[in-house]
Design brief:
The chain is an alpha+beta fold and 354 residues long. It folds into two domains: 2-200, no CATH class; 211-352, Reverse transcriptase/Diguanylate cyclase domain (Alpha-Beta Plaits), CATH 3.30.70.270. It is built from twelve helices and five strands. It has a five-stranded mixed sheet, with helices on both faces. Strand 4, helix 12 and strand 5 form a beta-alpha-beta unit. Helix 2 packs parallel to helix 4 (83-102). The longest helix is centred in the middle third of the chain and has 40 residues, at 162-201. The chain is elongated and about 95 Å long. The protein starts with a helix and ends with a strand.
């Protein structure tokens, strides 16, 4: 575990496509954290309204609309189906809460001071809510623009008020630094999580699903609602693999395993496939028996028509159709018995279980 974490540079994501799983991962992990931060801002505003004297001048329906809008944006952030809608919910919340707090100081003689102070607080406070610097910078700009631009009197940046704008710029820089720290930390955790998933569910030699992942996927398929398609389990075994290891060495055997795995993945994609251990591979084929026969024949004949370089490898396949009364163990055992019959007779072929 330590070696995995220490090897993370935090700069592994280099394209928009790679960022998609990152966003989905951090959205799942930070959903509760985001809601807590939003609740803190919301409760702080409610307390400010309670103790403020200016809120008495506001129309009750105005505050009611703000409360319902802010709560709606929080619910949208928490329950949104994907990270794009959740980002929209966060941005909407930040703009609404800014407007709600600004409502308390509209009539203050220190309006400029409070507006810029509010922008500074929000820019630092919203830094943990965003998963990368671009959305943070965009939302910080929108919050400042929504608070400062609509005012009828332009805010002067000369004299005593100049330092306040320096504070505004400094606050944005601090928020950006905090956001970058969170961003790099989240990337490191994402990469660590992804590598641990690979170690747990992917075969290190061939890159296919390992036995655990493959069986879990099979169980998931069996637990799904009844499907009109028929399911066939292929148990594929490399013929005379022990002889390859004995005569050519385990290094050559590993190369054969990788090449066979690549060929199986190429021929069976997008069907579920994986390495079950040793020289055995599994494939789940959905559809008719004719389709299963065609795929089995294609796999077997492929190693004859397009032999692996310098190996002369062939494979045998045992095939079992799933029936509603079958357990997973019975299904796999039926394929294993069919494979045994192929091995016992001629190898380099396939057979369906009875």
């Amino acid at each position: 575990m330590e070696s995995i974490i220490s090897n993370e540079s935090g700069k592994r994501l280099t394209s928009a496509f790679e960022f998609t799983p990152y966003f989905e991962h951090v959205e799942r992990r930070s959903r509760t954290q985001t809601l807590i931060i939003q609740m803190v801002f919301f409760l702080a505003w409610l307390l400010s309204v309670h103790f403020s004297t200016s809120h008495e001048k506001n129309k009750p329906w105005h505050e009611a609309i703000l409360i319902s809008s802010v709560m709606g944006s929080m619910l949208m952030t928490y329950r949104a189906p994907n990270f794009k809608w959740r980002l929209l919910g966060r941005m909407l919340f930040e703009i609404l809460i800014a407007q709600a707090i600004a409502l308390l100081v509209t009539d203050s003689v220190y309006f400029t001071f409070w507006m810029i102070s509010l922008c500074c607080v929000l820019m630092v406070g919203m830094a943990p809510l965003h998963h990368e610097p671009l959305s943070y910078s965009l939302c910080a700009l929108l919050v400042c623009a929504s608070l400062l631009l609509p005012q009828s009197n332009p805010i002067s940046v000369t004299g005593e008020k100049a330092w306040m704008f320096y504070l505004l710029i400094f606050s944005f820089g601090m928020g950006l630094v905090l956001n970058m720290i969170y961003f790099l930390d989240r990337i490191r955790w994402f990469e660590t999580h992804r590598r641990l998933q690979d170690l747990a569910y992917k075969d290190g030699l061939t890159g296919l699903k390992n036995r655990r992942a493959f069986i879990q996927a099979l169980e998931s398929r069996l637990n799904q609602p009844k499907c009109p398609q028929r399911h066939f389990f292929f148990l594929i075994d490399i013929d005379d693999f022990k002889r390859i290891n004995d005569l050519q060495g385990h290094g050559a055997g590993d190369e054969v395993l990788r090449a066979v795995a690549q060929r199986i993945d190429e021929l069976t994609h997008p069907c579920l496939n994986g390495r079950l251990g040793g020289e055995e591979f599994g494939v789940l084929v959905d559809g008719s028996r004719i389709r299963a026969e065609q795929m089995a024949d294609e796999i077997v004949s492929s190693f004859t028509l397009r032999p692996l370089t310098g190996s002369g490898v062939t494979v045998s396949i045992g095939i079992a159709e799933h029936h509603p009364s079958m357990t997973l163990a019975q299904w796999m055992k039926a394929a294993d018995e069919a494979l045994y019959e192929v091995k016992r007779h001629a190898k380099n072929g396939y057979r369906f279980s009875i």
